[in-house]
């Protein structure tokens, strides 16, 4: 199956605000201090909610940047966030202080701190640490490219790759969001979500896109993938490419990622379908065991 010379496959409820207390003439100022403190405590939830909303918008500024929008002006940031230009200036200033943004003349771009955080993820993420050696072994055994993907909101993000092709021509690769309803890496992960979360995800997808499969078809596809233990797709994300993916589990059999072997349709045709699926599943199992031994997930 693999090239000659390659190793053989191993396979809180909030308390109501205190009512103001009338201070008698013989009471000292301490009673007033206590009452004021209680009044502030009663108002705290609303203040905290407003603060969290502001923080979400500030951090949401980073999400405005993409390969299609690598740089933005203050006006564009303000418009996309729906905030006054003065607020956008403040967000940019705060994020620039910690290196997450950089201002170049009138344009704002992502800052060098992003690169540092990316390196930190590559070196310290427990899933990547557990997955890298088995992924490398699978790539060497098969000559295929191998991807590690994780769920992020309504997208799947490839967080680590082991390439055999030095110049892979992929529409979707590391760091590029993949729709949860397309491609083997997404489907193999989503299918193993707990039933309640799977239903909620479908409802959210359906509210965003009229092209979402009806629940019955969506659920049946997930059940089929669960029965088979893996997912195989061709051309759904990259034309002329076939992917075979299996889920990776953490503690309590909770799915945390998926591992995918990807190659050209012609290359995958050289493999026995069941044999390559077994190899990918075995790699996913090895990663799951390593994760359990690591003790982080």
UniProtKB/TrEMBL annotation:
<dbReference type="Pfam" id="PF09339">
    <property type="entry name" value="HTH_IclR"/>
</dbReference>
<keyword id="KW-0804">Transcription</keyword>
<dbReference type="InterPro" id="IPR014757">
    <property type="entry name" value="Tscrpt_reg_IclR_C"/>
</dbReference>
<dbReference type="Pfam" id="PF01614">
    <property type="entry name" value="IclR_C"/>
</dbReference>
<dbReference type="InterPro" id="IPR029016">
    <property type="entry name" value="GAF-like_dom_sf"/>
</dbReference>
<protein>
    <submittedName>
        <fullName>IclR family transcriptional regulator</fullName>
    </submittedName>
</protein>
<feature type="compositionally biased region" description="Low complexity">
    <location>
        <begin position="43"/>
        <end position="52"/>
    </location>
</feature>
<dbReference type="InterPro" id="IPR036388">
    <property type="entry name" value="WH-like_DNA-bd_sf"/>
</dbReference>
<dbReference type="GO" id="GO:0045892">
    <property type="term" value="P:negative regulation of DNA-templated transcription"/>
</dbReference>
<dbReference type="GO" id="GO:0003677">
    <property type="term" value="F:DNA binding"/>
</dbReference>
<feature type="region of interest" description="Disordered">
    <location>
        <begin position="1"/>
        <end position="52"/>
    </location>
</feature>
<feature type="domain" description="HTH iclR-type">
    <location>
        <begin position="52"/>
        <end position="112"/>
    </location>
</feature>
<feature type="domain" description="IclR-ED">
    <location>
        <begin position="113"/>
        <end position="293"/>
    </location>
</feature>
<keyword id="KW-0238">DNA-binding</keyword>
<keyword id="KW-0805">Transcription regulation</keyword>
<dbReference type="InterPro" id="IPR036390">
    <property type="entry name" value="WH_DNA-bd_sf"/>
</dbReference>
<dbReference type="InterPro" id="IPR005471">
    <property type="entry name" value="Tscrpt_reg_IclR_N"/>
</dbReference>
<dbReference type="InterPro" id="IPR050707">
    <property type="entry name" value="HTH_MetabolicPath_Reg"/>
</dbReference>
<dbReference type="GO" id="GO:0003700">
    <property type="term" value="F:DNA-binding transcription factor activity"/>
</dbReference>
């Amino acid at each position: 199956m693999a090239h000659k010379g390659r190793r053989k496959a191993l396979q809180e409820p909030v308390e109501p605000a205190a009512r103001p207390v009338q201070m008698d003439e013989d009471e000292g100022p301490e009673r007033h201090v206590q009452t004021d403190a209680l009044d502030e405590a009663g108002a705290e939830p609303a203040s905290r909610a407003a603060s969290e909303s502001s923080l979400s918008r500030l951090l949401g500024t980073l999400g405005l940047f993409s390969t299609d929008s690598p740089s933005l002006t203050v006006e564009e940031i303000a418009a996309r966030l729906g905030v006054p230009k003065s607020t956008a200036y403040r967000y940019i200033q705060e994020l620039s202080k910690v290196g997450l943004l950089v201002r170049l003349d009138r344009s704002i771009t992502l800052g060098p701190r992003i690169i540092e955080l990316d390196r930190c993820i590559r070196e310290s993420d427990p899933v990547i640490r557990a997955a890298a050696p088995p992924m490398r072994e699978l790539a060497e055994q098969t000559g295929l490219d191998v991807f590690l993907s994780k769920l992020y909101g309504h997208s799947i993000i490839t967080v680590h790759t082991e390439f055999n092709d030095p110049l892979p021509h992929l529409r979707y690769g590391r760091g590029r969001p993949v729709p949860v309803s397309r491609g083997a890496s997404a489907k193999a992960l989503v299918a193993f979500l707990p039933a309640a979360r799977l239903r909620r995800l479908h409802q959210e997808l359906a509210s965003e896109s009229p092209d979402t499969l009806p629940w019955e078809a969506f659920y049946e596809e997930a059940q089929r993938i669960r029965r088979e233990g893996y997912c195989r797709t061709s051309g759904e994300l990259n034309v002329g490419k076939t992917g075979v993916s299996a889920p990776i589990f953490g503690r309590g059999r909770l799915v945390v990622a998926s591992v995918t072997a990807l190659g050209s349709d012609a290359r995958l045709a050289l493999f026995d379908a069941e044999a390559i699926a077994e190899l990918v599943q075995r790699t996913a199992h090895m990663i799951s065991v390593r994760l359990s031994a690591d003790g982080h997930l």
